[in-house]
Automatic annotation (TrEMBL):
Domain Glycosyltransferase subfamily 4-like N-terminal: 14-174
Name of one Pfam family that matches: Glycos_transf_1
Organism: Sediminicoccus rosea
Molecular function per GO: glycosyltransferase activity
Top-rank lineage group of the source organism: Bacteria
Database matches in InterPro entries: Glyco_trans_1, Glyco_trans_4-like_N
Keyword entries, A-Z: Glycosyltransferase, Transferase
Protein name: Glycosyltransferase
Residue intervals of the Glycosyl transferase family domain: 181-330
The protein's Enzyme Commission number: 2.4.-.-
Length: 371
């Protein structure tokens, strides 16, 4: 696909990085620039089966079928793919895609190569720093960070020119305030209760266990709805039972359309132990929902300073106290998102970084998938 943007991720399974790549591709396509998302791992049918939202963008998806572990044949396949499609831009997300697809893009003479770091805590590991430095030398990309904190951490860990900051953005047309009672009814959530929400993978890094400890400290009319799945689901349900709060928990699983979830809430919780710049608080605030979050990574950059609350990680009592304050608070965080975190602005910023390299597009993304 001559002139296209190809976003490259390790895999297409529910996660903030993957959602951001999909959303950037969708927005850039709407702005008139053909855009694809290439997953190094997996295949289309399996990915859609595990994440149904992908069906809505199937014509934009490519899969490289990477084998587990080191795959020496992946690089030649990617070089061949890029030479055939002739994209204007290869935009990688995270270190695996940077190493494989970034290097292949350079060898295939792709004119513009971009790489976004979505977090920086992994760079505290010396082996990971060496790997990222190697990948950056091989790819020679324009480096992007999705939050000021990430840019600073990347510059300190890797040296060289600091990354360009392009804040994560969300679709403020799709994500907007809606009627709370109708949203709860549609999801089978209780009316008449104060409802907190978490939208996250159920993994240790997301701190859902800390939120359950905090819920135990809150009044019994405060409930918690959790949208997401992951390896800790069973352990978290057991924890809720042991804490005596199981009747105040509402497990919704992975949701394809988060614009149905946020309007049902009074507050969104982001109790993470590590983060880059998470999408969930931006999405919730676009729907007019205030946020209580741990002050980790780049999270603070995505929280409305007038309406949001930031607390120390791993502290259930501090989280519970902030929730009580926020439940009594007022104010609309949506203007903050409109000003600071528009998806349209993020997509255009990435295109601007590569604009001098663009070639003329062809008719459709489907043509690239079938070629």
């Amino acid at each position: 696909m001559s002139g296209a943007v190809i976003h490259v991720v390790q895999h297409l399974s529910p996660g903030g990085l993957e959602v951001m790549a999909l959303e950037l591709a969708r927005a850039q396509q709407a702005q008139g620039r053909p855009a694809l998302v290439l997953s190094l791992e997996g295949n289309l049918e399996t990915a859609i089966a595990h994440w149904p939202r992908l069906a809505g963008q199937r014509e934009q998806l490519l899969f490289a079928a990477k084998r587990p572990g080191l795959d020496p044949m992946l690089m030649p396949r990617l070089i061949s793919l890029f030479r055939r499609l002739r994209p204007a831009v290869v935009h990688t997300h995270h270190v695996g895609p940077m190493l494989y697809a970034g290097t292949a893009a350079r060898l295939a003479a792709v004119p513009a190569r971009l790489h976004t770091e979505h977090d920086a805590w992994h760079l505290t590991d010396p082996k990971r720093r060496r790997l990222v430095r190697l990948a950056r030398r091989l790819m020679a990309p324009v480096m992007i960070a999705d939050a000021p904190h990430v840019a600073q951490s990347v510059a300190e860990a890797l040296g060289g020119t600091p990354p360009v900051i392009v804040m994560n953005g969300v679709d403020t047309e799709r994500l907007r305030p809606r009627d709370q009672a109708a949203a709860r009814h549609a999801l089978g959530l209780p009316d008449g209760q104060r409802l907190l929400g978490i939208a996250a993978r159920l993994e240790h890094v997301k701190g859902v266990d800390v939120a359950l400890e905090a819920l135990r400290l809150l009044p019994r009319d405060v409930h918690l709805a959790i949208a997401g799945g992951g390896s800790e689901a069973t352990a978290l349900r057991a924890q809720a039972s042991a804490l005596g709060i199981a009747d105040r928990l509402h497990w919704l699983g992975v949701m394809d359309d988060m614009s149905r979830f946020y309007p049902a809430l009074n507050l969104l919780l982001v109790p993470s132990r590590h983060e880059g710049l998470p999408l969930a608080p931006l999405e919730a605030q676009a729907c007019g929902i205030r946020v209580v979050a741990t002050n980790v990574g780049g999270t603070a950059a995505g929280i409305c300073p007038r309406t949001g609350q930031l607390v120390t990680a791993e502290d259930p009592a501090a989280l519970a106290g902030a929730v009580l304050l926020a439940l009594e608070g007022t104010g609309d965080p949506r203007p903050f998102v409109l000003r600071e975190a528009s998806l349209d602005a993020a997509a255009r910023a990435c295109l601007t970084l590569a604009a001098p390299k663009f070639r003329a597009p062809i008719a459709s993304c489907e043509a690239a998938r079938e070629s």
